[in-house]
Specification:
By secondary structure, the protein is an alpha/beta fold. The protein has two domains: 3-205, 3-Layer(aba) Sandwich (Rossmann fold); 209-291, Immunoglobulins (Immunoglobulin-like, Sandwich). The chain contains seven helices and 15 strands. The strands form four sheets. It has a six-stranded parallel β-sheet, with helices on both faces. It has a four-stranded mixed β-sheet with strand order 8-15-14-11, with no helix packed on it.
């Protein structure tokens, strides 16, 4: 795992130290994820728990954090050094860049050039082979960032590969998440941003799917049990029956266990709905064939 950072000893950006935690076991992996950020995510990188939260469920996350990074042109100077812009960094990474890229850059970019810089950044990412771009919008403490968020939402519509991670809404009125400048994070803010990005990754990279087969067989008077399985999204999941009731004698638990003792034979189409913890919904229909007890 690669993590790059310039001038990491600068006290101004130090976030409150977090408690350590074990990283959760990864599920099916979507390949490398590259996170390209400016100094806002130093608070995530420097604290064990926010970092583990962002990476939870993914085994190959490359954190590319640079103080004063801009999208294009020349990054602003910090301690007489300039980190690569997003465009320069993407070109230098070459084949090492992930299929999925999280972008948290723009606080240092001039408002006048932001639209053209956004387009150049996206085109550079796509030319490098990136398939999905999750772009974190901006906490509004200054009118400029409100304007940039509006621009970002409009510009992103032209690129189906770009999804907006809505930090603006998530962080609204959460003043205790930020240092005095209204941009850089304390520990609680680092946890909030890490959680938001992780949820966005799981929604985008590992979409919610249902694994249940289309036809199931049961017998009247005999116990029936079918664990329904969902993957992707953000666990835990909640299951329910829609459209019509289950055949007599059967019931569905919220965790996805369809069980009971069928009381009548016949064919029934069961309409199911599963919702993950991020609110994403998937519907599934299965056919239950219930045979007579003595057949």
């Amino acid at each position: 795992m690669i993590r790059s950072l310039v001038a990491v000893t600068v006290a101004f950006f130090v976030a409150i130290a977090g408690a350590s935690s074990a990283r959760a076991t990864a599920a099916a992996q979507p390949g490398r994820i590259t996170v390209i950020t400016d100094s806002v995510m130093t608070a995530v990188l420097w604290n064990a728990t926010p970092l583990a939260t962002l990476e939870n469920g993914f085994s190959d996350v490359d954190m590319e954090v640079g103080i004063c990074r801009t999208l294009t042109g020349e990054s602003c100077a910090f301690d007489d050094e300039r980190v690569p812009t997003l465009v320069d960094l993407v070109q230098s990474l070459g084949s090492q860049i992930g299929d999925t890229v999280v972008v948290e850059v723009g606080y240092n970019d001039p408002l006048a050039t932001f639209p053209s810089s956004f387009k150049q950044a996206v085109q550079t990412l796509l030319a490098a082979g990136v398939k999905r771009i999750l772009w974190v919008n901006y906490h509004v403490w200054d009118p400029q960032f409100a304007t940039m968020d509006t621009m970002l939402a409009q510009l992103a519509r032209a690129y189906p590969q770009v999804s907006i991670v809505d930090w603006e809404t998530d962080s609204a009125a959460q003043y205790h998440w930020f240092q005095g400048d209204g941009v850089h994070l304390v520990y609680d803010g680092a946890m909030a941003l890490a959680t938001l990005v992780n949820v966005a990754l799981k929604e985008t990279v590992t979409p919610l799917t249902v694994q249940a087969g289309s036809v199931q067989h049961a017998r009247v008077g005999q116990p029936f049990s079918l664990p329904l399985d969902a993957t992707g999204g953000v666990a835990p999941y909640q299951w329910q029956v829609t459209v019509r009731a289950l055949p007599r004698g059967l019931h569905l638990l919220a965790d996805g266990l369809l069980e009971g003792v069928p009381k009548t034979q016949g064919r029934a189409v069961v309409h199911l709905l599963v919702t993950d913890s991020a609110g994403r919904v998937v519907r599934k229909s299965l056919t239950l064939m219930t045979e007579a007890a003595n057949s």
